Amino acid sequence: MAEETVYWVFGKEQGGEEQLRLVGSVNALNPALAENYARSLYGEDANWAEMAVVPRGSVHRFDDVRGA
Q: Taking Cα atoms as reference points, which of 40, 63, 60, 62 lies closest to residue 51?
């Protein structure tokens, strides 16, 4: 049985901010399903110019933002 992946959902509103912002997350078996879930959950209540889904594991996080 395939495992679901957590995808972070980013969106950019039409006529709004210039950059994508995190709007939520979805769990899906593949990117195509993640896109469909993101559209259903987050796409209906806002006027998005752009949306993106990114596997959470693909994002490199770091705590030392100053590079000390």
A: 40
Distance between CA atoms of 13 and 15, rounded to whole angstroms?
A: 6
Number of structural domains, the chain?
1
User: SS3 string of 18-50?
Assistant: CCCEEEEEEEECCHHHHHHHHHHHHCCCCCEEE
* Any domain includes 10: yes
The verdict on residue 65 lying in a domain is: no
25-57 pLDDT tens trace? 999 999 999 999 999 999 877 788 999 999 999
End-to-end CA distance of the chain: 43
Please check whether residue 63 lies inside any domain of the structure: no
